Amino acid sequence: MLFEIKPNLQQSAVFDGLNRFLRETMLATLEGRTIDETHLPVGLCAAIAGNQPTRTAVDALSARLSALDRRQKQALKDSLALNTDPCVFLSDRTAPLPDIPDAVFPVLKTLAVHLFQRTAKLSGVEQACGECINDHYARFRNGNAPGNGNVCCACGTEYLAQEVRADENDNEQWRGPYDHLLAKDLYPLYGVDPKNLLPICNTCNSKAKLAKDLVFKDGVRRLSFSPWTERASFQEIEVVVDDASDLFPRVVVNFRSADSDRQEKLATWDDVYQIKSRVEGEFRELGAKLAEDARAPDDASFLEKLREAGLAKAQAPRLTPFNYWRARVYAAVSGMNPLSREALRQASAPTPQAIQDMEALFFQ
């Protein structure tokens, strides 16, 4: 995680309600009793029962649970009773994952996916929970605390709502996806757990992460940041400008920590969300970025422009994508060898023809 998640943000009432329903349904079936609605949103069970596809998926799970033997039922009840926060499995590789019987797993997965993708959008469910999913997403991406701003907290490179429409309320904007920290296909028990659902950008979710598992890699447990409480520190992210290996200086990002557990979490973050390659790729056109923000006639002016632009970006990292990374890159350029920095300044200066074209455009 690049940015810390602000505390005291109200969770999604829809996902919280559906998660409570899923767990209570499983416990009630395992214990041979009816569902206790005491701790569920009023009207939620009726809304679910009134939807045939959801009811079919619930009945299939109940049938498989009922068919378990006594030992299997007790083991699953014990796991459900623990109600372990899914993020515990990210930060503690010794925490035992719930053991879902093979006969139950596929129907639990089917129900969890259906609850997340379909049931959560039913008007009756929204009415029972008192809000829709977009209401929570709007709270999360609000610019004022406890909101976290509209820039993805995982990478800092993309908006959550990619196009904000002036004539729409916040909860009606086109939003990005929710990332299942524990993938719903692998860990269906957490398919609608609000603590397992993190708003992130489309690139992080649909291009970088895809089906990658934060808990295992090549069959081996690994550590990962718990995003609600952890993030990479400023000192653990190194941004430098390498002017030795290529014809044109290139930006290099490294993640380093003296603590082995922290180093592993940094490696997992980069492996899953592809932070290093995405940032380095963005700044392949370093000269163009400098021409946008720090065009200057000499080195002294160049350093001042870099300082001004860097400070402005650093003060608004959640406002515009890549602000955080531009601030770090401009600081790295400032720290370059003066001769290399001067060569970079000259290389990023606009050509006489470009200046002439712009003057013709704006001052004709």
From TrEMBL:
Per the record, the domain of life is Bacteria
Organism of this sequence? Limnobacter parvus
List the protein's name: HNH endonuclease
